Amino acid sequence: MKRDRFALFAMVTASAFALAALATPAAFAQAPKPPIKIGFITVLTGGLAAAGKEMEEGFRLALEEVRGEVAGRKVQLIVEDDELKPDVGLTKTRKLVENDRVHLLAGILHSGVSLAVGSHVATKGTPLIVTNAIARALTQEKRSPNIFRTSWAGGQAYFPFGPYVVGKLGYKRLVLSYADYAAGQDMAGGFAPYFKAAGGEVVETVAPPLGTADFAPYLAKILSRAGTANAVWAWFPGADAVRFVKQYVEFGLKEKIPLIAGGSLVEELLLPAQGKAALGIISADIYTPTWESPENRAFVAAFQKKHNITPSRYADQGYTGARVILEALKAVNGQIEDVPRFLAALRKVQLVTGRGPIRFDAHQQAILNVQIRQVREVAGGIHNVVLEVIPNVDQYWKAPR
């Protein structure tokens, strides 16, 4: 009897082990894979909150198009507000990397924040994909193998506008006017050398401080050059741009000296506030929502359906950044933990989005199309309309001879 019980016990035990051996691989195969964590740093408070929110919305739209999943792994987005402050951005970065254990970082609107975050992650190795901030050093003097940028560097978007202004518009003598801080200096520094190299002359520079409420003294200085300058090239951001454009018209300058611009002066988010005062302004930028391409029509339609507004450049920047990341994740079958392989895949990404084709140069800065546009009345609204597209503009661009 004991022998029979022992035989039965042995049989049951052997069967249990056999079943366990058969079940284990299937159980592992069905176990959910951990999510891919992306830390997204943007600005959600203050004067640029609308731009920061649109950048996040564009990023989320690209994730939703793949149902928030890559290679069987869910994508988890953790959003932090840097408040446009480098120290806050750095604190949020440490929280994302050390506490939340994100696999990569993306976003960043403000150049100062991008430099603070970039310096930190360069020593940690965490991949960083900057979707807006334009600090030139990020992909030049302070470049790192794990830092990429899908927007432009410094005045990159304005390089080809200089030759265009001289050759196509016939403006050879300009007044330059821009907000006198790092970004404004970078933008003017991107445009002016190429304008001069094409045979242009800067007859006056008028640089009010950022946050100027009353531009009258500066507009009077511009007016004094109306007899010698062919046009004014201007760059101001946000509320400064709205005030400058409206006061330019109120001062009676529009009829005396044409206004041309860096694209931020008349970006889509600002046109409703600027109204008809912005009509006729020709500018350069990397994205225009009215551009007629299949990719852009699809992007605009999807964004409008979800948010009931026309996307601005910031929405495109978020969307394009996410598309680039997703492309690289697909190439490595979602294995984001293999950082060297993921970075190698990022370097090889080439795709077409609403702004046109995008790829990276040797320093991981995007090579872009630049669009020359003009503000016009379109279908009852006021929008930028593309006049010409200049392809393959990199951060070391040289004008074709």
Describe this structure in words.
It is built from 12 helices and 15 strands. Strands 7, 8, 9, 10, 11, 12, 13, 14 and 15 form a 9-stranded mixed β-sheet that branches. The chain has a 6-stranded mixed β-sheet with strand order 2-3-1-4-5-6, with helices on both faces. It is an alpha/beta fold and 401 residues long. The protein has helices spanning 2-30, 49-65, 86-99, 111-124, 161-167, 182-197, 216-223, 238-250, 271-274, 294-307, 313-331, 339-348; strands at residues 36-42, 69-70, 73-81, 104-107, 128-130, 147-149, 173-178, 201-206, 231-235, 259-262, 282-285, 351-353, 356-360, 366-378, 381-393.
Describe what is shown at a glance.
The chain is α/β, with parallel strands linked by helices. It has 12 helices and 15 strands. The chain is globular, with a radius of gyration of 26 Å.
Please describe the topology of this protein.
Layout: H1 2-30, E1 36-42, H2 49-65, E2 69-70, E3 73-81, H3 86-99, E4 104-107, H4 111-124, E5 128-130, E6 147-149, H5 161-167, E7 173-178, H6 182-197, E8 201-206, H7 216-223, E9 231-235, H8 238-250, E10 259-262, H9 271-274, E11 282-285, H10 294-307, H11 313-331, H12 339-348, E12 351-353, E13 356-360, E14 366-378, E15 381-393
Parallel strand pairs: 1-3, 1-4, 4-5, 5-6, 7-8, 7-9, 9-10, 10-11
Antiparallel strand pairs: 2-3, 11-14, 12-13, 13-14, 14-15
List keywords for this structure.
401 residues; alpha/beta; 9-stranded mixed beta sheet; 6-stranded mixed beta sheet; 12 helices; 15 strands; globular; disordered N terminus
Gross geometry: globular
Spans of at least 5 consecutive residues with low confidence: 1-24
What would the average pLDDT be, to the nearest integer?
A: 92
Q: Please state the CA-atom Rg, rounded to the nearest Å.
A: 26 Å
Measured as a percent range, the helix fraction is 40-55%
- Content-based structural category: alpha/beta
Could you state the order of secondary-structure elements as H and E?
HEHEEHEHEEHEHEHEHEHEHHHEEEE
Query: In DSSP terms, counting alpha (H) and pi (I) runs of 4 or more, how many helices?
Result: 12
Q: Biggest β-sheet, characterized? A: 9 strands, mixed
- How much strand content do the residues show? 15-25%
What is the total tally of β strands? 15
